[in-house]
Amino acid sequence: MPGLLALTGAMLLAAGCAAAPKPDGAAGAGSVSAPATLFVAGKRGNTLSKIALESGEEVLRKDSCTNPHELATSPDGMFVALACYGGTTVDLFSAATLERVASIDLGENARPHGIVWHESGDIFATAEGRGSLFRIAGPLTDERALFEFATGKEGNHMLAVSADAKTAWTTDLGSRTVTRIDLVTRRAPFSVTVGEEPEGIALTPDGGALWVSARGSNQAFALDPVTMKVRETVATGRFPLRIAIRPQGDVAVTSDLMDGSLSVIDLDGAEVIRTIRVSGPEAAQDRFQVTILWSDDGRRIYVAETASDTIAEVDYASGTVLRRLAAGEGGDGLAILP
What is the rounded distance in angstroms from the CA atom of residue 10 to the CA atom of residue 36? Predict the structure, then answer.
């Protein structure tokens, strides 16, 4: 496969239907200034759910696609994009009604997983079955076009994209690597080995560091986004599936599945400064926490507990689980609209 395949919408597109605020600290468990709506991909139930965070109630649930995993909201807040891991499409839904408005086919064996709806309006998604990354330009327009970037690696799982949309990075579970992809010059992708089974990935708000969590070696790594050299290595809890950076850029948390907890990493000091208990190790297998997501104000962390069909809402300041929100079967991917 060439390093870049430019594909027009007519060639590879199947349409099924037509700056965070920076408070000086986190609030306590009292008033909730969290965003209003949480979307959840139910990978066992093949659903998309919508939860009103003020009440904590699931207000809408619709059938989506086979084994949906990650999802993302459009910059204008009008749509939700869902990576259909059990198939070949990225499906777009109305945020208001959860009605499907488009289904974008990425080709044979695509198995899309990680997804970012960029501020530019384009969607980026990993295609694990094809060993590639896709850029979907103008996803809601008649001029929609697909561009495929081969990585040469196995298991392209999660991704991060630079603010200028010129560079993307993927974690490659099967190859034990992290890959940098130049989205403009078409230079060959550059990969480095990072721990065992790197999966979680996040770029700091200033773009100065790329953080990766390696679930097989219980570590988090800070990489130089350009040279891809490892700057820091941090021991985390057990099986850190995901890593998410607080909007303020001061800390990151890893989702430590085997411990039922979150490791809080000070990014300047590159060290774990706190551990937040979510379910604890004794209930870790019953909850099976996966995806983590910060509220836009950095006061709440949402933790998908896939086995118990719940989303834990955690107060960052106190480390308290405020409530557990019921969602569809096997809730995994999360996205928030303020």
Answer: 37
Domains of the chain: which residue ranges? 4-14+34-199+261-337
Confidence of residue 34 (pLDDT cuts 50, 70, 90): very low
Count CB-CB contacts under 10 A for residue 22: 12
Q: What secondary structure, in 3-state letters, does the chain show?
A: CCCEEEEEHHHHCCCCCCCCCCCCCCCCCCCCCCCCEEEEEECCCCEEEEEECCCCEEEEEEECCCCEEEEEECCCCCEEEEEECCCCEEEEEECCCCCEEEEEECCCCCCEEEEEECCCCCEEEEEHHHCEEEEEECCCCCCCEEEEEECCCCCEEEEEECCCCCEEEEEEHHHCEEEEEECCCCCCCEEEECCCCEEEEEECCCCCCEEEEECCCCEEEEECCCCCCEEEEEECCCCEEEEEECCCCCEEEEEECCCCEEEEEECCCCEEEEEEECCCHHHHHHHCEEEEEECCCCCEEEEEECCCCEEEEEECCCCEEEEEEECCCCEEEEEEEC
CATH topology of domain 4-14+34-199+261-337: Methylamine Dehydrogenase; Chain H (2.130.10)
Q: What is the pLDDT of residues 175-201, one digit of tens each?
A: 999 999 999 987 999 999 999 999 999
